[in-house]
Design goal:
This protein is mostly helical. 81% of the residues lie in helices and 0% in strands. The protein has one domain: Up-down Bundle (Ferritin). The termini are far apart. Bound molecules: MU-OXO-diiron. MU-OXO-diiron binds next to helix 1, helix 2 and helix 3.
């Protein structure tokens, strides 16, 4: 495997690992603060990021490179409020998109079209994740500081995740 591409893929493994930890910290904070819908959303998002990381690890190893499992950095313990949690999520996803774009750029420079093809999955995934984070944040901004509205928002988030999980299970034939 091309050396520059391998280094960039290992950097991406780090990013996905820290994303998973970051969202896990948000999930735990939300759970402790009675925001069960947000907690479920973040637990599930954290799992997705772990899946993104594993997909990269397997790709690097299968292509003859060496995947490096990184040390885990400590994510924040406290968050200001619900709005700031989703602002941080969007900011983080934007930084992941930049890193994916950088990876695409390196693949093209090194003429590694196989990895370029593999990375396209992440390009689409980032589009979806940024759009979702923006949509959720827009809702929170509309609600403002209305505690009743925030309660309903959290409850809606919980039921939307249950629905998404059910339809995934139906698609999986479970
Ligand atoms: Fe895997 Fe949300 O970046």
């Amino acid at each position: 495997m091309n050396n520059r591409v391998e280094i960039a893929l290992n950097e991406q493994i780090k990013k996905e690992t820290s994303s998973s930890q970051f969202y896990l910290a948000m999930a735990s904070w939300a759970e402790k603060n009675g925001l069960n819908g947000t907690a479920k959303f973040m637990y599930s998002h954290s799992d997705e990021e772990r899946f993104h990381m594993l997909k990269l690890v397997k790709f690097v190893n299968e292509r003859g490179g060496k995947a490096i499992i990184p040390a885990i950095e400590q994510p924040p313990i406290e968050f200001e409020n619900l709005k700031s949690v989703f602002e941080l999520l969007l900011k983080h996803e934007i930084s992941v998109t930049e890193s994916i774009n950088n990876l695409v750029d390196i693949c093209l420079q090194e003429k590694d079209y196989t990895t370029h093809n593999f990375v396209q999955w992440y390009v689409s995934e980032q589009l979806e994740e940024e759009a979702l984070a923006r949509a959720v944040l827009d809702k929170i901004k509309l609600i403002g500081n209305d505690s009743g509205g925030l309660y309903l928002f959290d409850r809606d988030l919980e039921s939307s995740i249950i629905q998404a999980n059910n339809s995934n299970q139906m698609n999986d034939g479970k």
